[in-house]
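Hi support team,

I submitted a single chain yesterday and got back a structure, but I'm not sure I'm reading the token output correctly. Could someone confirm the output below corresponds to the sequence I sent? I've pasted both exactly as they appear in my results page.

Thanks,
R.
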Amino acid sequence: MRVGIANPYAYRPHVGHMVFLFRQLEKLGHHIFFMGCNGSLDNCNSKLKKKGVVRKFECLKCQVGGIQSYLKVCPERLDLPIRLDADVIKLGRALSYSSVATALQVEHVSQTDELDFQLLQDELQDATATALLNTQRWIRDNDLECVFVFNGRFDLTRAVVEACIAESTRFVSVERSWFGNGLQLLPNENCLGLRNFHDMCRHWAKLPLTYEQAAKASQLITRRLNRTSVGEWKQYNIDTISTYGSKRIKYLFLPSSQHEWLGHQDRSFEWRHPVDGLEYLFKKLGLPMSDLVVRAHPGWAMNIKHYGRNRASEFYRNWATRVGAEFLEPDCNIDTHELMKISDVILVNGSSASMEAAWLGKPLFSFVPAAFTSSGISKNLFSRADIDSLSSSAIQALRGLSGTLVDTREQCRLALRYIYCANFRLMQFVDAVTSTNPFTFNVTEPGDLSGLDSLVREGKLQENDRECGVDDAEEGEVVEAILSGNIHALQREMNVSLNAKGSPIPRRMAYRWLDILSTFKRI
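Hi R., thanks for writing in. Yes, this is the structure output for that exact sequence:
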């Protein structure tokens, strides 16, 4: 088949991921076509909010560090000058939404009406529209039947996705996996799509794990807690030295930023913002806001790329003050995991801390759709109707009057099934692509390419691992070890299976200086 690979950005490790996919697609006999950017666009996600030499340097990075630094190819260009009419410019403006929301660290949808948001959309709309039309031409001229595109969420990559949709061409979004091993390959949805996650996790939530599978899932969490999860994009709580104290927390809210998800159809919910749902819940049930602790995300204290101040901290700080909740600053040195341990109920709006909370057997409530919300580990409160329909037993338990919200062992069991499904079944090439740090990875030769071929030919995502347990006895052993605090017993088996194997994909000789430079400065 005629397959396209589109990646206009030279971000690491994503270009290397595309090279890995190219080699596997070539083994399957597919004819491959490339598309990139040569720096002719006035603006893009990398140049947004930058000026002068720094802005121009972004184009140089993509020209030098793109797919051609690995392969002797000449990608077709999505940045070629092309005539734009008013309709396509309007579409380009809409496709720039997520890039602008991220660049401005938008937290509430009302902030998208502000002047700075509108002005940045003005700056991006022509470039995004140009990328859209050039990608449509590329698809038509080469009779492409499937396109692999990096990310698919922001500006130029979103344009590639929309071009595929306009041309009725199958596409697969490509992203790094959550914990670094394997690739996230989602057919016919961008990197934030939930359809594939929900379909797969809903199915496998009903089936038991083997001992090894359950231990692998648990090890991902323990590595995060031990600050040894080398493949994750960021590690948080590294310097935590103090605890919250002896006081028990009734309700712990672990918010995460909304800017990447804003406008995504799979992430829609009734609330204008997740805190509206939380307020409605507390008011409906008569729960005192003074019993709520809001732990600001540690990432909000970090400088991310060239983006400005994180607006989520200010938003939640002001909100907590208004409703009378306790607010823990993003840079406070209190361990979030320790807070979960002493909390009765965990509240989230999409946070990956959901995995840790359920792994601990804690009751979990989510106010927004997320990858985990079909797995059974969360009670989903996406609307007033969801809250109004809470059972009397759940209400009594939430009020702390009687009963329990979840069976601790069953919650931990479901958490392990979800963690394993999301990271070892849904992610592809888990054993062949293993991270050495957030930006580099090693590869080995994959033994089975049928899943990749299924994506190309049918647009169907196959499980990377289809094995399951005979019954729940083996995973039950792991559940008992977790809940009894005996997780060190699982350590030895997993150290081998989760460590990086193989060797890096080398760039062409003339470009290897890039990797040397990258060890000193991220480019």
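A quick pointer for reading it: Residues 115-141 form the longest helix (27 residues). Let us know if anything else looks off.

Best,
Support desk
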